Amino acid sequence: MESTGSTILQCTRLQNFVAVTRL
Predict the structure, then answer these.
(1) SS3 for 23?
(2) For a pLDDT cut of 90, what percent of the chain falls above it?
(3) What is the pTM of this model?
């Protein structure tokens, strides 16, 4: 199911964005 992969990818990108913002 591509839906699951898309959700994981979005979650990873979101975490990366938050990490950069906190930095």
Answers:
(1) coil
(2) 61
(3) 0.50
Compute CA distances 1 → 4, 6, 10, 11, 17, whole Å. 6, 9, 15, 16, 25
Q: How far is CA 15 from CA 3, 5, 12, 20, in A?
A: 18, 15, 5, 9
For the chain, the average pLDDT equals: 88
Dist. CA 9–CA 15, nearest whole Å = 10
The label of the residue with tokens 């975490």 reads 15
Write the DSSP symbol of residue 1: -
